[in-house]
Amino acid sequence: MSTASITLNDTHTPIPKETGVPILGCLPEFAKSPLSFFKRLTNDYEDVVEFHLPLIDMALVVDADIAHKILVSEAKNFRKADRDVKIMGTILGNGLVTNNDTPSHKVHRKLVQPGFHFRRMEAYTKTMSDYTEQYIANWEGGTVRSISDDMFKLTMYIVTKTLFDTDMDSMENEADQIGETMKVVQDMINKRFLQIIPMPDWVPSPGNLKLSKARKTLHQTIDQIIQSRMKPNGEIDDNGDMMSMLLLAEYEDGSKMSPKQVMDELITLFVAGHETTSNALSWAFYLLAKHPEIQTKLQTELDAVLKGKTAEFSNLSDLIYTEMVIKESMRLLPPVWTLNTRQANEDTIIGDYLFPQDKVIFISPFANHTNPKYFPNPEKFDPERFSAENEKSIPKHVYIPFGTGPRVCIGQAFAMMEAKLILASIVQCFEISLAKGQELNPQAQITLSNKDGMNVYIKRRQFYT
Ligand code: HEM
After folding, report:
1. Which is the closest atom of ligand 1 to the Cα of 99?
2. How confident is the model at residue 187 (pLDDT cuts 50, 70, 90)?
3. Which atom of ligand 1 is least distant from the CA of 342?
4. 25 and 52 in contact (C-beta within 8 Å)?
5. CB-based burial label for 68 (10 Å; 0-12, 13-18, 19+)
6. Which of 269, 276, 407 best tests ligand 1's pocket when mutated (most atoms within 8 Å of CB)?
7. What is the C-alpha separation between 252 and 111, in angstroms, rounded?
8. Rg over CA atoms, the chain
9. pLDDT at 3 > cutoff 60
10. pTM tops 0.85, yes or no
């Protein structure tokens, strides 16, 4: 397979095309269920397929090696698609997710990276363990809980503490305000993603006004926290949180990030790290509730490793089956069901296919992970796929819940630790089943969640042996 910028003499295989119905193209099928649409395309095409939506031509990359080239080996020829960056940029500014300037992205990634250094992570895991213990202390067995709301709150308290050092107790106001505002912001970004032509910012529509108010509140709240951290002489208190680290970080010439850049990076970390982890956990609870035999196996590990205590940093390496459960959950129901779309910087040939520079390219963890070519019996929830031995036989480049290449998730280790500690601590104490009437209704927006949340019935376990 060759990879090169196109020249006049190049030959290439045309990308097969789904035209859909007149005028609307594939919109009706896409809008009805993006997941089913991608699944069908994955079944019907081998490598890549183009599909038409009103005013936009898009492509779904089905073959994991072609996707890998776009994301990794030829990443320099591709950027995040202008449409995605524009929609997300209204909220995230120019933080890591939306920074589309390769040299600037590299510099800022290097500045943010130490926040995820192993030694810092150990401190974050203490927050994760303590907050989980505190959060579930008053849970009563024999009740129905919205586990999606619980995970939304718990992961929000944890991310707010690690980013801003705001305590869960004293958070009632500040963190709840940040959380509420973030919810508005996330809802609005989600809505815009589904609009073929997003409403321009300047139109005073109810949605835009709501978004603008939320953005202002968010900026003011974070700005107040930043100001409170600055001493009168301009020095910064290092509280061990990410905000201190970013305020103290220096570019190579010794200068510091502007307060606006720090704000953008913090909002980005919050948005990128919150809903994703919360949804990953909700899906894991759902799948465990549907598979009692797997839940029992998990509890056997938890009883042996934790012996009734809350899971903490020192337990992480022994929570082997817990990790397999989480990996398999993120295979079947990946919180980031499709990566940010990509766009070639100039017409580019990958493999035998020409990707014109205006084509919006989807690469979807969901499509990869449920492709029978890569995962036999893909609908089956089977954590054994991720045992040390079996994991080796998963074809390269296909399992990408955290993306890959230079834009791979910076919070991957953080998220895995958080998910393991929370899941382990809760499943050790409670048996989880689905609440009456609870149905699976995946909603594919920026992240994948269950429409109207996820209710479970919890029963306190009697014995830890
Ligand atoms: C289960 C939880 C998570 C999942 C599934 C997830 C998934 C992803 C994926 C797929 C990407 C790549 C997007 C693309 O290439 O288009 C990404 C990027 C990113 N994630 Fe995560 N993420 C999770 C948790 C977190 C956490 C906890 C943080 C931070 C606290 C975080 C921060 C980021 C950032 C900043 C980026 C952009 C990186 C860059 O472009 O340099 N994520 N995430």
Report:
1. 40
2. confident
3. 16
4. yes
5. buried
6. 276
7. 10
8. 23
9. no
10. yes
Between helix 171-194 and helix 82-92 the angle, nearest 10°, is 160
Q: How far is the CA of 188 from the centre of ligand 1 (A)?
A: 19
For residue 210, give its domain range. Answer: 3-460
CATH number for position 283: 1.10.630.10
Domain annotation covers residue 381? yes
Predicted confidence (pLDDT) per residue in 130-180, tens digit: 999 999 999 999 999 999 999 999 998 999 899 988 776 665 566 677 777
| 465 within a domain of the structure (yes/no) | no
Which pair of tokens denotes residue 215? 């953005």
Rounded to an integer, what distance in angstroms lies between the CA atom of residue 22 and that of residue 25? 6
Compute the distance from residue 11 Cα to the ligand 1 centre, in Å: 37
- Residue 276 Cβ inside 6 Å of ligand 1? The answer reads yes
How many structural domains does the chain have?
Answer: 1
State the closest ligand 1 atom to the C-alpha of 268, by its place in the atom list counted from 1. Answer: 35
Ligand 1 neighbourhood includes 417 CB (under 6 angstroms)? no
CB of 268 shorter than 6 A to ligand 1? yes
**Which of 105, 265, 341, 409 for mutating ligand 1's site (highest number of atoms within 8 Å of CB)?**
409
Mean pLDDT of the chain: 90
pLDDT in tens, 415-431: 999 999 999 999 999 99
| pLDDT score of 149 | 93
